[in-house]
Records
---
Amino acid sequence: MGRIRVLPDQIANKIAAGEVVERPASVLKELLENSLDAGGTRFRIEVESGGRRLIRVTDDGCGMSRDDAMLAFERHATSKLRDVKDLLSISTLGFRGEALPSIASVSRLLLETRSPEESTGALVEIAGGKMLRCDEAALAAGTSITVRDLFFNVPARKKFLRSDQTELAHIASLATHYSLAHPGKTFQLISGGAELLHVTPVATLRERVYQVFGSQTLDELVELGDCQRELLLPPAPVAPPEAIADYRREPDDPPSRVFRLTGFISRPQVQKGNRNSIFTFVNSRLIRDRMLLHAISSAYHNLMPHSCYPFALLFLDCDCEEVDVNVHPAKTDVRFRHQSFVHDFIRDTLRDRLIESRPAPAFAVGTPQPAMGLPFSEFTQMLDNEAPPPSEPEGQNAAPEFTLRPEPGPQPRFDFGEVGQAVRLPSPGAKPPVPETHGDFPPGFLPPFSSSLTALGDLRPLGQIHESFIIAAGRDGLWIIDQHVAHERILFEKVLKQRAAGRVEMQALLMPLILQLTAEQQIEYARIADELQSIGFETEPFGARTIAVKAAPAAVPIGDLEKLVFEILEIADGELRGLSMEDVRRSIAASIACRAAIKINMRLDQAKMEWLLSALAATDYPMACPHGRPIALQYPTRDILKAFHRI
Ligand code: ADP
Ligand code: MG
């Protein structure tokens, strides 16, 4: 007798649940997506004990008939796909028909639903995959699904759950981010009777970001606007690798496709220790994609230290056929048809916006407070501290990790504590009356709160502190500029521009510098020899594992040359770890700039300071040095006035 058996549905569902339901937040994701697909406009989410004990989602969507309510729990039962062709143009969030039977197989589930056209509703109760009840009932139009005792019959899964607080943090974050994707809808999240989130419909994403994060976070973000890029399709149909390729292209396909990107990204001063604050939506679906993360990181390359990540809330919209969402059961992964086009579109758009906005970092005055309107920040903060479970490889999590808490910006390299204290000291209410003799500032005098680095061009240098930092007065306040990193930024952009134009300035060495390489360094050298040449190094092999450096980029001190070459070979090694050739080029330019830049503890005369400031103002990105450190700090006039109790 044969040994192969077809698994009963109940077991198959439990297996599917392993992929779809990782934790309470993944249940919420499926329920919320169903409610959104059902056309709901108001979503009420109730949870208890971080969702272990209870998760209930109530919507005012299209509801289900009694027959559909029962069918919904059959495996692969869906109203969203009709035939295989539909798989290529999925516009709904769900389509696999797996979520409800999977969730029902690992919990006690109650479905209450009524479609507005019918007079009575249906009530279905299931526990551990077994149907207990299916009755008619008088119900409000819409659907409510209650999931109790998640994993009550799968103790092994239960053990993997984190504390209630952590699970709640995941839930809060998920609910919030769906609310950001749908500003026109109402979202309410209640945990153990306490309301954690309640947002009412607004017209724009900006208003929703304000509702959710408050004005402080909004100030730290740059809005992308409506950015588009057109992809020209080749005239002949492309043959895709999948078996369902026949359906991929219709003969009347348009010859081009437009990709749209909207959303918010943080200024480079907002630096996070992990990727938890990056949210990407593709066609309104919250997804986690390595390629998108890479594109975002590349946009911040040389604007932020390597180990830091920004906050990003990105919405990419494109033709459904440009993206395959049927890659993973939890539908958090996607595959783009034109990966590198999408990658470059995102990287270039973000970088351009960052460069345009030129935000100036203000002095770190006091500790930034979590944004108002974010009552669950204490929960979400925990996600930042949470180490990933050992079994989960990075980027493979079924449920993305979310966090909302705005974090303090980077600590300035040097402590400006005295300045901070001067501003912090006066307590609210204790403001002494200002005698009239002190004079008033004319109305309309006050500059805008967050000023931009375009102001750098008009600064008047006053002197140096520690022969390292230039103090300058500007129309919008007092500035401190780190002379080394400022010069680094200037040289970095100069090296890259000269490299692009094929006109690098070089210095010939009187005696070639002979360097002994390890086997690994030899391999890296062979790979980047051309790049070295185009960026200003003249090198050639000189016997086994030895190279001779005959010329170097003009400004590099000869004494630093050996260290620089080895540093560059180490950067090239980074390519193996995922750096693109362009990133390697930028890193090489950063190293050259760092070696050639004026150092700290160096006296500068007035003319030099003036030159430095105007050259810095002329750079594309005067906010951060190529390693991501801030260059200029501003003490805005407004803060000065506040500190002197003038306002
Ligand atoms: P999928 O979403 O992939 O279709 P699910 O198992 O999540 O599969 O849901 C099965 C079906 O149940 C859906 O296709 C939809 O017709 C119905 N359904 C689920 N939730 C709701 C809801 N909140 N309102 C109306 N219909 C729903
Ligand atoms: Mg679904």
---
Amino acid sequence: MKRLSLATLAQLPAAIGRPAYHPASIATGIVHFGPGAFHRAHQADYFDRLLASDPRWGIAAASLRTPDTIEALARQDGLYSLSILDEAPSTRVIGAHRAWLGPRDSERLAALLAAPDTHIVTTTVTEKGYCLDGTGELDLGHGDILHDIANPATPHSVIGWLVNALAARRSAQLRPFTVLCCDNMTGNGAKLRAAVLALAALRDADLSRWIADRAHFPDTMVDSITPASDAAFLDQTAARLGVVDDAAVQREGFAQWVIEGGPISGEPDLESVGVIRSSSVAGYERAKLRILNGAHSTLAYLGLALGHESVREAMTDAALAAFTERMVRQDVVPGLQRVEGLDPGAYTSAIFARFRNPAICHLLSQIAWDGSQKLPYRLLDTIGEARQAGRPIERLVVPIAAWMAFVHDRARSGVPIVDPLADDLLAAGGSAEGLVERLLAIRAIFPPALATDPEFRAAVSDAFDALAKGRIAELLAR
Ligand code: CS2
């Protein structure tokens, strides 16, 4: 079978959408770090629609670690298909990527980051890619950061790349680019900015001040359920397109991108393609992380324990679905601040409806990855605030205990855990005796105030014991 490329684009079936611009004639205005499925299905979709009216916003995609996606894009002239899986499914080809840079293309990447036409840098490197410690600040003991301090011109981390590129722009008397962090972290832009300033300050205090004064790192909220592209999906896509597409992605119809504040001069008009510019991104971000992602992680750890594979399957388990929804409505929503234009009740209902989308098979095991990085934003912040305000936590501790039981199960069975702290987790999770205390002692996950709170400790231990004794139904009835 032939492959998707500029040469085969014209042969695709009529039902497949294609770029409304000529991919070879667009300019590069965006550099993106981490071209995984979420970027290709979300930000690239917005830029693809923008390119129909403004050819300045092609993307250069950089992957600092894994070359697979980059190689697939290279084989396909940067083209890939996006399938929207909803009541009326559709597939269209995206041609927004104009450069694809792997771990060996450092010089080209540095040149693109320093180019006058590069106005925006976007990132989806997952929570762990920012090298932050348990308090959300740059971890100066992280191997990549130690490397970047010693070798500023050949960085390993995205933080090092941003500092180096901003230094080059300052030397060339160019404006800094705007950095849009698109990962699921509370205050994502502010955290990335603080990390960049911290590393820049170690190199040159004036550089750090220049970045602080001139560069923008708005907070963003990104949302669209994007299951990983497995072999079965790639086969179905090839059948639909009539050509092979190794970089194909799928997502639900719903997508949202909220960016803090208005655009500054020179930035693309993202509002024209549906991006929301808001002064209350923090509120949107918190609601999304705590309701959608918090419920996702809850369904993942409890659902896997109950033998379910996907979110939609877990949602057919009446006890599990009802427990998760009760936890969100009664324990998560009361802790959220009011956000203009966002009704938490209706928002929650819409999210649970999305989880039931029969066209999407989103694996719980995918959501269970990187629990150590996700739980703080998704559940522990809610629990910490609930304790301070005297709200109940008896339901909120159940997913935390379920994550601990998941770690224990993996440690006993020898099935690897996908998590940057996997070694620490497996070491702590071997024996059930004292496991809760050992995991609570990991400072990169549990803030001291929570880890030493007797009521929280007792509630987690109690829920973990119940899970260990197979009394999951009792917990779900809470
Ligand atoms: C999921 C998210 O994998 C996960 O942990 O919770 O990727 C989720 O699907 C997205 O944040 C939805 O916007």
